[in-house]
């Protein structure tokens, strides 16, 4: 059910779908962020869905600059004024992530340049049109191995999603939460991390009988532990599954930071206003 990045489908599941265990929704992670951020059109209560988990929860983000700039240390990175950071569009997850890196790393007068596709970001970075890009670690390894093998870029920091999960190629990068200066910034980073951690959850409508929901939740636990399924998933998607099991999905939703101040801070991060002073 297309419409509003999953909001139409989530509204239908919440308000109109039969709660008989035979209707399951698969919504993009925007279903979670839209509800927390109070976006227009949301007619569902995030806490009343029954979560079945997600096949994909891992999504590490790394921040890197063109090595020709010579910004190989944090001190040099912070001293460089006007770093041009690329993204697809205002509000895109890469845009949000770039703004988050810039804020918490304490970059000096960063500039955010949008309008690129993902492949165009890489070309613009190497061509000197951009100075820095935040990217998904697994995509960098798969699509741009020369970034690492030939040392074309300097990697500065990582957002581990989930926290504590070390990417084998970026295990030595400092985690971004090591640079936070306040509880507000810590919660901001936690909110961003959980939005991405939620992946694309499978959900049941509120009111689905517990016995039927329990059958489906157990089925999800079993399929995510099935080696044949995991091999087929990797074959079809090109990615290893990083399952978020039903109980972990419940916990992630329950523990989402919802302080109004933090939510407004996050919304500001996704806009075009200058980053706030720390």
Any chance you could write out the topology, listing elements then pairs?
Blueprint lengths: L6 H9 L9 E2 L3 H7 L13 E4 L7 E6 L7 H6 L4 E3 L6 H13 L5 E3 L4 H9 L5 E5 H7 L1 H5 L3 E7 L23 H15 L4 E3 L5 H14 L3 H11 L8 H9 L5 H10 L9
**Which outline best applies?**
globular
What is the helix fraction of residues, given as a range?
A: 40-55%
Quick check: average pLDDT?
Answer: 94
Largest sheet: 3 strands, antiparallel
User: CATH superfamily assignment of the largest domain?
Assistant: Periplasmic binding protein-like II
- How many strand elements? 8
Question: pLDDT under 50 segments (min length 5)?
Answer: none
Strand content: 5-15%
Description:
- This protein has a three-stranded antiparallel beta sheet with strand order 1-8-2, with helices on both faces. Strands 6-3-7 form a three-stranded antiparallel beta sheet. A two-stranded parallel ribbon has the order 4-5.
- α4 (93-105) links the parallel β4 (84-86) and β5.
- The protein is globular and about 60 Å long.
- It folds into two domains: 4-55 and 198-260, D-Maltodextrin-Binding Protein, domain 2 (3-Layer(aba) Sandwich); 61-194, Periplasmic binding protein-like II (D-Maltodextrin-Binding Protein, domain 2), CATH 3.40.190.10.
- The chain has twelve helices and eight strands.
- The mean pLDDT is 94.
- By secondary structure, the chain is an alpha+beta fold.
Short structural description:
41% of the residues lie in helices and 12% in strands.
What key phrases describe this protein's structure?
D-Maltodextrin-Binding Protein, domain 2; alpha+beta; 278 residues; three-stranded antiparallel beta sheet; 8 strands; single chain
């Amino acid at each position: 059910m297309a419409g509003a990045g999953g909001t139409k489908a989530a509204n239908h599941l919440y308000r109109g779908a039969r709660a008989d265990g035979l209707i399951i929704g698969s919504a993009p992670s925007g279903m979670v962020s839209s509800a927390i951020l109070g976006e227009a059109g949301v007619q569902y209560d995030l806490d009343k869905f029954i979560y079945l988990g997600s096949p994909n929860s891992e999504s590490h983000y790394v921040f890197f600059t063109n090595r020709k700039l010579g910004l190989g240390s944090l001190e040099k990175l912070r001293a460089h004024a006007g770093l041009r950071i690329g993204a697809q569009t205002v509000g895109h997850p890469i845009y949000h992530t770039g703004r988050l890196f810039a804020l918490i790393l304490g970059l000096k007068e960063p500039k955010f340049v949008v309008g690129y596709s993902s492949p165009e970001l890489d070309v613009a970075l190497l061509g000197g049109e951009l100075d820095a890009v935040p990217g998904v670690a697994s995509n960098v390894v798969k699509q741009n191995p020369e970034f690492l093998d030939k040392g074309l870029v300097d990697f500065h920091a990582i957002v581990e999603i989930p926290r504590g999960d070390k990417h084998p190629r970026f295990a030595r990068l400092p985690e971004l939460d090591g640079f936070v200066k306040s509880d507000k910034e810590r919660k901001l980073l936690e909110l961003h991390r959980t939005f991405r951690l939620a992946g694309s959850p499978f959900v049941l409508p509120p009111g689905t009988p517990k016995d039927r929901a329990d059958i489906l939740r157990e089925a999800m636990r079993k399929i995510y532990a099935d080696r044949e399924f995991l091999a087929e998933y990797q074959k079809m998607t090109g990615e290893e599954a990083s399952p978020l099991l039903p109980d972990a999905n419940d916990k992630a939703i329950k523990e989402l930071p919802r302080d109004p101040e933090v939510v407004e801070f996050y919304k500001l991060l996704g806009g075009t206003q200058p980053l706030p002073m720390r």
